Amino acid sequence: MRQKSRSVKEWIKFCQKNANDHGFQIVWTRQAGPLNPIEKLMKIVSECGEAMEAYVAQTLPDTPENPINCTNWREHFDEEMADIFVRYCHMVGDLKIDIEGALEKKMKKNKKRPPKHGKLT
Q1: Count of other CB atoms within 10 angstroms of residue 116
Q2: Looking at residue 39, which CATH number applies to its domain?
Q3: Percent of the chain whose pLDDT exceeds 70
Q4: Which of these, 1, 19, 65, 71, has the minimum number of CB atoms within 10 Å of its CB?
């Protein structure tokens, strides 16, 4: 016999308890000190979103309502790409990642992969 479905509130309590029991508590008050790696990574993701918005803006008319538009989208896109790189380098530096060694290792692995290795894009 099929078990009764959980309500959304029951799922929330179940997921919350399981995550918290495994040490993944979330609190609104940010602790003083440096950003953690996930916060830093999400800063990079936010810059990627801004770059995507600039790219999409190449289809928008050049009007006062569109600060990023078909005539200046590339300038904004390039700036957001620079922001991504700056935040990325900051993160790599703070976390003391041997990025040159990691790149060498990754590119050796990538050279052995077939084209698109099962991916669509």
Answers
A1: 8
A2: 1.10.287
A3: 98
A4: 1
> For position 39, what pLDDT does the model report?
87
Q: What domain range includes position 46?
A: 33-110
Question: In 10 A of CB 22, how many CB atoms?
Answer: 8
CA 15, CA 21: separation in Å to the nearest integer? 10
Q: What is the pLDDT of residue 1?
A: 65
Residue whose pair of structure tokens reads 């976390």 in the numeric block: 95
pTM, whole model, 2 decimals? 0.73
What is the rounded distance in angstroms from the CA atom of residue 68 to the CA atom of residue 47?
A: 15
Find the mean pLDDT for residues 66-89. 95
